[in-house]
Amino acid sequence: MSGTLRQALRIARRDMRGGLRGFRIFLACLTLGVAAIAAIGSVRESLQQGLASQGAVLLGGDASVTFTYRFGDADEEAVLAESAQAMSVIADFRSMAVVGEERGLTQVKAVDGQYPLYGSVVLDPPIPLDAAFVGTDDLAGAVMDDLLIDRLGLAIGDEFQLGGTAFVLMAELVNEPDNATGGFGLGPRTLVSRHDLEGTGLLSQGTLFDSEYRLRLSDGTDLGAEKQRVMRVLEEKGARWQDARNGAPGISRFIERLSAFLVLVGLAGLAVGGVGISAAVRAYLDGKTETIAILRSLGATRKLIFLTYFLQVAVLTFIGLAAGITLGTLVPLTLAPLIASVLPIDAAISIYPGPLAEAALYGGLASLLFTLWPLAQTEDVQPAALFRDAALGEGRRPRPVFIGLTVLVLMILVGTATWLSGMTELAVWTFIGLAGAFVALLLTGSGVRRLSRWVGHRRGLQGRPILRMALTAVGGPGGEAGAVVLSLGLGLSVLAAVGQIDNNLRGAISRELPEVAPSFFVVDIQPDQIEGVLARLDGDDGVSRVDTAPMLRGVMTRINDRPAREVAGNHWVVQGDRALTYSDRPTRTHVVAGEWWPEEYQGPPQISFAAEEAEEMGIGIGDMVTMNILGRDITGEITSLREVDFSQAGMGFVLTMNPAALAGAPHTWLATIYADHAAEAAILRDIGKTYPNITLISVRDAISRVTEIMGQVAAAVTYGALATLITGFVVLIGAAAAGERARTYEAAVLKTLGATRAEILLNFALRSAVLGAAAGVVAVIAGGIAGWAVTHYIMENDFAFEPVSAAAIVTGGIIATILAGLFYAWRPLSVRPARVLRARD
Question: Which residues lie below 8 Å from residue 547, measured CB to CB, with a gap of 6+?
Answer without folding.
Answer: 518, 587, 588, 650, 651, 671, 672
